Amino acid sequence: AIVGMEIYNMFRKNDSLKIRMPEQVPPGVARAFEVLIPTCLTAIIIGAVGLVCQLATGSELNAFIFNVVQKPLQSLIGNNIFAVAILYVIISLFWCVGIHGN
Q1: What is the Cα–Cα distance from 37 to 20, expressed in whole angstroms?
Q2: pLDDT tens digit sequence for 29-43
Q3: What pLDDT score does 47 carry?
């Protein structure tokens, strides 16, 4: 998400990618058209990254992250109460930054 927003901001700052509207157009409508091309380019780039990941690993990006992050954490938990407590702290930290779900 952070990389996607950085790409979007990079495109949005580029004046050559903005659609210019006449002065008669209300400012809210003009701003919506200004961000149309940067939004589409960002979606295309993020989609291409997901496609490359799927072609390279044979699974989608979400499944790849699941196998790299969640599987090792699941194997560490077992019946240990301290490991479960650490896992719930990690889940709470993920919630704080906008990653929801266990």
Answers
A1: 11
A2: 888 888 899 999 999
A3: 92
Q: What is the rounded CA–CA span in Å between residue 11 and residue 2? A: 14
- Whole-number pLDDT of residue 5: 92
Residue 98, SS3 per DSSP: coil
pTM reported for the whole predicted model: 0.64
Cβ atoms of 29 and 21 within 8 Å: the answer is yes
Question: Kindly report the CA angle at 46 between 95 and 7, in degrees rounded to 5?
Answer: 85
Q: Number of C-alpha atoms within 13 angstroms, CB side, residue 84?
A: 4
The crossing angle, in degrees rounded to 10, of helices 27-34 and 36-57 is 30
